[in-house]
Amino acid sequence: MLPHAIRKPELYSPHRSRRPLILTLDVHGQPHRWVTWQHAIFYYSKNLVAWDAGEHCFTFLGGTSRLTGSRSALTANSIIAIKGRALSARSLIQTPPLSNRELFHRDRHVCAYCGGEFSVHRLTRDHVLPVSQGGTDIWMNVVAACRSCNQRKAGRTPEQARMLLLYAPYVPNKAEYLILSNRNILADQMDFLARHLPAQSRWRQVAPA
Ligand SMILES: [Zn+2]
């Protein structure tokens, strides 16, 4: 990490459309959530940023002062720790909400039965133990499956359908969920989150160590 003074800020105008999200941590460095740059600027202005850990600084240009004629500018780091109560252990082990988008991301868009890679539109949420046989809609019982595999499996377990599961489902942790839920992660943010991934995460294979 470079000292603050020699990091080169990148310029962002409030009118620019694609702005990165800022990764927030608790004071102990546990990943917390993504916030918008406006939210990050709010933390800075209220003196709530305990420390920063990113390699990127973003300078956001504001309006021009009528009194001085100078343009206001605020700088935010790509990874910031927020002062205040540390996150409770409960919030760190909180199960991320299950949605198709995050499920397909967790499974890297690979069908759990044929191993093919598919677009979101050709994937479905398969219940390993079918709902009709008492299976529930939880991370540990769902995998991504292509439409034809899901149809072939129908209301049967993999054993009943004689369809081998190519990988086992698992519950993503907070860091993995943060990776899954942001399409525009900066390299330093990805590096940081990759250090908090669960051992079985398939994202470990693509994330830099
Ligand atoms: Zn398939």
The fraction of residues assigned to DSSP E strands is: 15-25%
Bound molecules: zinc ion
Structural class: alpha/beta
Count all strands and give the number: 9
Mean pLDDT: 84
Order of helices and strands: EEEHEEEEHHEEHHHH
Largest sheet: 4 strands, mixed
Short description:
The protein is an alpha/beta fold and 209 residues long. The protein has helices at residues 37-45, 89-93, 100-106, 147-153, 158-161, 174-180, 187-194; strands at residues 9-12, 22-25, 31-35, 49-52, 57-64, 71-77, 79-82, 123-127, 142-146.
Question: How does this model look, in words?
Answer:
- The protein is α/β, with parallel strands linked by helices and 209 residues long.
- It folds into two domains: 4-92, no CATH class; 100-161, DNA Binding (I), subunit A.
- 22% of the residues lie in helices and 22% in strands.
- It contains seven helices and nine strands; from the N terminus they run βββαββββααββαααα.
- The protein has a four-stranded mixed beta sheet with strand order 3-2-7-4.
- It is elongated.
- Bound molecules: zinc ion.
- The site of zinc ion (ZN) has 7 residues, from strand 9.
